From TrEMBL:
Gene3D superfamilies: Ubiquitin Conjugating Enzyme. It is an enzyme of class 2 (transferase). This is N-terminal E2 ubiquitin-conjugating enzyme. It catalyses: S-ubiquitinyl-[E1 ubiquitin-activating enzyme]-L-cysteine + [acceptor protein]-N-terminal-amino acid = [E1 ubiquitin-activating enzyme]-L-cysteine + N-terminal-ubiquitinyl-[acceptor protein]; S-ubiquitinyl-[E1 ubiquitin-activating enzyme]-L-cysteine + [E2 ubiquitin-conjugating enzyme]-L-cysteine = [E1 ubiquitin-activating enzyme]-L-cysteine + S-ubiquitinyl-[E2 ubiquitin-conjugating enzyme]-L-cysteine. Its EC number is 2.3.2.23, 2.3.2.25. GO terms for molecular function: ubiquitin conjugating enzyme activity. Residues 4-152 form the UBC core domain. InterPro entries: Ub_conjugating_enzyme, UBC, UBQ-conjugating_enzyme/RWD. Keywords: Transferase, Ubl conjugation pathway. The lineage of its organism: Eukaryota, Metazoa, Ecdysozoa, Arthropoda, Hexapoda. It comes from the Eukaryota. One of its GO terms (biological process) is protein ubiquitination.
């Protein structure tokens, strides 16, 4: 018997296969082996500072998904230099924490992250990258995020 979380993830997986998102590639083989761990490749959009670059995201889901957000981090050797992405791959994005809603999906998260990358005008780390990466939990969901843009 499959759990509600697993049914939802399978539905999202099938939707992404049927209607792929430009610049987003899912690792279907890995997902078939473990529905709770997804690897997704994001390709930098044309005309942006990340044009043609590829980045890998890891989504980890618990049995409370979609009522609880997935853990989403960049993995691998090519972590984008961005003012909301830490050098350890953690992403400061409100929809991954307090603004999460069950109406969101893997596809919506990927679109948000690709949009966030596309809007960047320079490659830089968050101002607190060094301190954060030395003191943070391995799980980004345990971080109480402070959104620097909120003070603008």
């Amino acid at each position: 018997m499959t759990s509600p979380s697993e049914r939802r993830l399978r539905k999202e997986f099938l939707e992404l296969i049927k209607n792929p998102i430009p610049g987003v590639i899912i690792d279907g083989e890995k997902i078939e082996k473990n529905i709770n761990e997804w690897n997704v490749t994001i390709i930098g959009a044309e005309g942006t500072i990340y044009q043609g670059e590829t980045f890998e995201l890891q989504f980890l889901f618990n049995d409370k998904y979609p009522f609880d957000s997935p853990s989403v981090v960049f993995i691998g050797k090519n972590i984008p230099e961005h003012s909301h992405i830490y050098s350890n791959g953690h992403i400061c994005l409100s929809i991954l924490s307090q603004d999460w809603t069950p109406a969101l999906s893997v596809g919506a998260v990927c679109l948000s992250i690709r949009s966030m990358l596309s809007s960047a005008t320079k490659k830089e780390r968050p101002p607190d990258d060094l301190i954060y990466t030395k003191t943070c939990s391995k799980n980004p969901k345990k971080t109480k995020w402070f959104f620097h843009d909120d003070n603008v």
